[in-house]
Design a protein that fits this description.
Layout: E1 3-13, E2 21-23, H1 33-48, E3 52-57, H2 66-74, H3 80-94, E4 102-113, E5 116-132, E6 138-144, E7 151-156, H4 157-162, E8 169-173, H5 178-188, E9 190-191, H6 196-211, H7 216-235, E10 240-241, H8 242-252, H9 260-268, E11 275-276, H10 280-287, E12 288-292, E13 297-301, E14 309-312, E15 317-320, H11 325-338
Helix pairs in contact: 2-3, 3-5, 6-7, 7-8, 7-10, 8-9
Length: about 350
Amino acid sequence: MALTSIVAHRIYRHSPGGAFELQLRNDVFALNGKLEELAYELKTQFIRKGGKSYGRFSDELGEFPLPAWLRDCRDERLSFLSFSHKAMQQFQQALEKAESLLDAYIVFVEEKLEVGDTLSLYLVEHQSGLYLDGDLVLDDSLFLDTTGFNLAAKIQLNDWLSGDSTTYVTLMRARSDKDIAEAFTHFIAFTDKQDIKQETAEFLKVVDDFSNTLDETTAKITRTKVVDYCLEQNKAGKAVTIADLSSTLAEEVKSYEPERFVRYVESTKPDIKPEFIPHAGQIRSYVRISGRNDSLSMSFASDCLGREIEYDPEQDTLTIRNLPPALKARLIKHLKESH
């Protein structure tokens, strides 16, 4: 990992009605292998977890001062440590109306990556566990719960400063106390939640229309490559860019010009966003149809419909031809054993 700075501060309230207290470090951590391991584990879990929203900073700097402090930090008018202190004081203020108890740490992680610099903030708590010491005596200990955190944010710093994106802040709020989550959202200055399901659905409709202008083989390659690209972007927490996707398709299908797909989008759907965050579930279901109940689970490639698989909506039945050999063998064996 290309860590540039990492620091952590504690915020806690142990009794209802009491004030939230801060315990601030006086210096950033000296980078070492353990810190890199911590940052990597937090980053990996953040990518894997759901409950994400995508947006930007609020323009109301009086109420949401964190972006101004962050800009001062990037311009070296404010040290990373001072920025983190101001941010913690802002979080403490945002928690004034919260009723939940809390004892947690905000870990600030700054990275310099090839695709751009990022700042990530994770709200992490301790967990307790039992262990046997060197004399085989049972004892308990505390450890940072790097897999169970529910609140975090990632800021794509280059995208924010360039002004070319409206989805440079990724906020994760997964199954946490509502009042704490609202305070964290306010503290981050997050706004403009994106309807990623609707945007993904509109995008996939354009891909369908585009694929219908191609021969069957090229259309299948195109749809598969679109899915691969979108899932890769989603895993990396990055937006799908229509122009970049168009170039990627041209690399896969040599008959394409690099601008072919982007020109099609601009001419047929000019109001579609040139950049959006993909919804992973909808992207996966675009090339696979799946479903299950208590006794049946089924999944198949969507282009099987009308060929190996026929659906009769009136009878609500599926007719399947060209069964997989392993499934066919199991069926034959089961029929023989049942008679």
